[in-house]
Amino acid sequence: MEIHTAALQYAVQGKFEEARQGFTTALEFDPFFGPAKTGIALIDDVRNLKLGKELAVHHFKADRYIIQGKWDAAIAECNKAIR
Fold first, then answer.
1. What single-letter DSSP state applies at residue 50?
2. Would you say 46 and 53 are in contact if contact means Cβ atoms under 8 Å apart?
3. How far is CA 55 from CA 25, 32, 59, 67, 82, in A?
4. Which helix (H) or strand (E) holds 29?
5. Which of 6, 31, 45, 69: disulfide with 50, CB 3.0–4.6 Å?
6. What is the pTM of this model?
């Protein structure tokens, strides 16, 4: 879904308000689209100080790499998040 890709790109850049709007739009087209629900939940956790912004960015980068089939890069982002 192209809307999700655009929202994910905003999230990777740390532009969470724009990303949240994109994920919300994706859910308007498909209310059961799990990746958009997860994106909103992560952004809400950053807003509510349950999750650090840097950790969320690593998560979104890993998601982007997974979509691209770049598994080693995705694992590297997950490792950065763990540190």
1. S
2. yes
3. 24, 25, 6, 19, 8
4. helix 16-29
5. 45
6. 0.90
Q: Classify residue 37 by burial, with Cβ atoms within 10 Å: 0-12, 13-18, 19+.
A: middle
pLDDT digits (tens, 9 = 90+) for 2-29: 878 899 999 999 999 999 999 999 999 9
Q: What are the tens digits of pLDDT across the range 17-73?
A: 999 999 999 999 999 999 999 999 999 999 999 999 999 999 999 999 999 999 999
Structure-block tokens of residue 19: 């990303």
Identity of the amino acid at 79: N
* Contacts of range 2-6, beta carbons closer than 8 Å, 24 or more positions apart: 3/29, 4/33, 4/35, 4/36, 4/39, 5/67
Residue that has been written with the tokens 């724009």 in this structure: 18
| Cα distance between residue 5 and residue 52, in whole Å | 22
